Amino acid sequence: MITLFSNGDFELANLVRVKISALGTYVPPRLLTNFDLEKMVETSNDWIMERTGIRQRHIVDKGMATSDLAVEAAQNALKERGIPATDIQAIFVGTVTPDMFFPATACLVQDKIGAKGAWGYDISAACSGFVYSLQTAVKFVESGAHQRVLAIGADVMTSIINYEDRATCVIFGDGAGAVVVEPATDDNYMIDFLHEIDGSGACSLYMPGGGSRNPSSHETVDKKMHYVHQDGQAVFKYAVRKMAEASESILKRNGFSGKDVDLFVPHQANRRIIMSAADRLGLPEDRIIINIDEFGNTTAGTIPLAMESARHQGRLKKGDLVLIASVGAGFTVGATLFRWAC
Ligand code: UT7
Known about the structure:
Blueprint: E1 2-4, E2 10-12, E3 18-26, E4 31-33, H1 34-38, H2 45-52, E5 56-58, H3 66-81, E6 90-94, H4 105-113, E7 119-123, H5 129-142, E8 149-156, H6 166-169, E9 174-183, E10 190-197, E11 205-206, H7 218-222, E12 229-230, H8 232-253, E13 263-266, H9 271-281, H10 292-295, H11 302-312, E14 321-328, E15 332-339
Helix pairs in contact: 3-4, 8-9
Bound molecules: oxa(dethia)-CoA (UT7).
């Protein structure tokens, strides 16, 4: 219900508080190490470790696509929650590497997991894809429209990487994560989201070929337009500034500061970006989760994979105040604050 006041303000009443009730992740078993990359391009384990913090990435075998990873992650989340797929009313998939332009990966996931009766769509927000899917899922439950929704972040970045370009091929890996979102039953719930897009950064990180601007042709293939193009330093500078700014803003407007955060779950793009942002927030290393060494940058997969790593290490407990921050192609910026509920 919306209450309108005479001064133009309004208040939303009867909103349901919402929680993440289960988490599932999946990475393909095959590994691509820095030493493997040394044999493919002019690079070194030392350079990659020092400049990015990445040691290895999981990559798909030929024939495996984003929906395959998303399905595994979704099934793991449903198993953890102990509910059948038919209980899910909507599915939102953050991805920039859909199986194909259409139908949406959400449709493929819906069919493969057997979520009969569910609806959904894909969200293109690159590295902020999971956070944007999460907010979408939360809003549908918060409004009372749905009871159980799946938010997924999944990417097969290796499908759009040029393995002759050492500046991009060392960064990315493949992976997926999914959460079940439903009404909260106690004080552990989603507190706030703060999102922003800035299209002036579109030319800093993009894939030029295959869309309506440059439809696929022999020429687009010859010009390597179906690969990730990146101005690494521009993305780096923007990410450091905006991850910290968005985090500071969301904490401040909810009456918190960096010292209240039990776990900072940043998008895993580069260890140096994470440490710079954390430094600005005054967060010590024992309250930051970094697993980029193991998975690289899996784009929409990084945040659920990082939450899973934290849980695995016993660093994510019920009631913990969790801060998520992401920056991705677009540019897209995302920050989320919540208390861990499962
Ligand atoms: O999720 C969002 C996705 N993207 C990002 O977050 C990317 C953000 N940017 C970055 O992480 C960093 O900018 C990179 C890791 C991409 C690059 O690191 P950098 O420290 O900014 O390197 P640079 O681009 O300034 O290049 C320094 C040198 C260059 O050589 P010269 O011109 O100084 O001779 C590069 O050619 O390092 C060279 N270089 C490499 N050398 C060995 C670039 N990539 C490599 C490599 N191995 N893989």
